[in-house]
Amino acid sequence: MTSKIPLLKPYFDSEELEEIQKVLDSGWVSQGPKVKEFEDKIAEYLGVKYAIAVTNCTSALHLALLSLGIKKGDKVLVADYTFPATGHSVLYCGAKPVFVDVNLKTYNIDPNLIEGKITERTKAIIPVHTFGQPAEMDTIIEIAEEYNLKVIEDAACALGAKYKYKYVGTIGDIGCLSFHARKGITTGEGGMVVTDDKNLAAKIRNLSVFGMTSAWDREKSAEFIIPEFTELGYNYKMSDITAAVGVAQLKKLDQIIERKRELAKYWDEKLKEIEFIEPPYVSENVKHIYQSYVALVDKRIKRNKLIEVLMKKGIQTQIGTYASHIQPVYNSNDKCPNSLEIFNRSIAILSNK
Ligand SMILES: Cc1ncc(COP(=O)(O)O)c(C=O)c1O
Question: Can you tell me the distance from the alpha carbon of 272 to that of 295, in angstroms, rounded to the nearest whole number?
Fold first, then answer.
């Protein structure tokens, strides 16, 4: 059923079509110059040295973990309240995700619970900037340094969000972004890995193209090069057609964020008038970009029923996201009561206007 009020609608106009047309006219539609342009523009926007465009944020997370050498027998701490792509990426490496509960107000990983989950096998931590609200990065980095853990920021929902004036995704060792349809800017499906580390960037690039030199890099060489497959990489490349949409979307990012923040302010005011809904909390020293506007429904209200009633009125809403530890795929013994509570009580409402 088409809703009168959808959860969100992407902001597209003629710019996306013009960029796609340029790529189609050029004849280079797989990974090539437009991907390079998109990567350069994201790197410039965030102020990072390297950006590698990939098929989605799940592949970005997978490559980030592989580049850090995460393997079978290792454990990776993962913020529990997240789309399960985060936990899945750890499983793809043969490692074990250990889920850490989140703060009931921010929906983000609770830094006070991290140290209790660290063992000798723990190699990395993945904080998630949930719905575009930055996680408490100072404490997370401090703990990571003390225990020699790598930090991969799952910034799938948070391009443009800032933690103390720094863009999220640029604070840990590696940041991963998503351009899925429900994200701030979208290419339908798409992702990006960002880092300041030259070696990690080279490894991630190589792994994203089957473990060989990329066609675009070979094209720039004056010599005829037959590539070698140096390791078992993946086909996680973004295409130039996808990147064309990304280039056009990126020009709109700041404007999109401002509109989403304005709408969030409106909802905050409106929801204050409703007794059984708690508007989302915003931490100090952050710029929340409201990829989704996610409120909490009072425990006395049946959230699923509310979603159904609204659906019948043509108003599309959704749950926020998932409690990972209860997903059967993980067979986890972790206890994350706050995450479970948010999973059961959250409601995402219109976040674009
Ligand atoms: C927090 C988080 N991480 C990772 C992903 C995976 O992103 P993608 O769909 O681009 O693979 C999502 C997608 O919703 C997400 O919300």
Answer: 11
DSSP H or E run through 17:
helix 14-26
Phi, psi of 123 (to 5 degrees): -115, -25
Q: What is the pLDDT of residue 1?
A: 54
- The list of the chain residues with pLDDT below 70 reads 1-2
CB-based contact 52:208 (threshold 8 Å): yes
What is residue 154's three-state secondary structure? strand
The rounded Å distance from CA 292 to ligand 1 centre is: 13
Which pLDDT belongs to residue 129?
Answer: 98
pLDDT digits (tens, 9 = 90+) for 120-140: 999 999 999 999 999 999 999
Which atom in ligand 1 lies closest to the alpha carbon of residue 291?
A: 16
- Ligand 1 pocket mutation, candidates 7, 54, 57, criterion most atoms within 8 A of CB: 57
Architecture label for domain 14-100+108-250? 3-Layer(aba) Sandwich (3.40)
**Residue whose tokens read 């506007």:** 293
Which runs of E-coded beta strand occur in 231-292?
Answer: 277-278, 286-287
* C-alpha to C-alpha distance for 20 and 31, rounded to whole angstroms: 13
How would you classify the pairing of strands 75-79 and 96-100?
A: parallel
Taking CB atoms within 8 Å and a gap of at least 24, the contacts of 302-311 are 303/344, 303/345, 303/346, 303/347, 306/347, 307/347, 311/1, 311/3
Q: How far, in Å, is the centroid of ligand 1 from the Cα of 223?
A: 39
The pLDDT assigned to 141 comes to 98
Cut 0.85: pTM above it: yes
DSSP 8-state symbol, 76: E
* Residue ranges covered by each domain of the chain: 14-100+108-250, 253-349
Residue 278, pLDDT score: 96
How would CATH label the architecture of 253-349?
A: Alpha-Beta Complex (3.90)
pLDDT of residue 162: 98
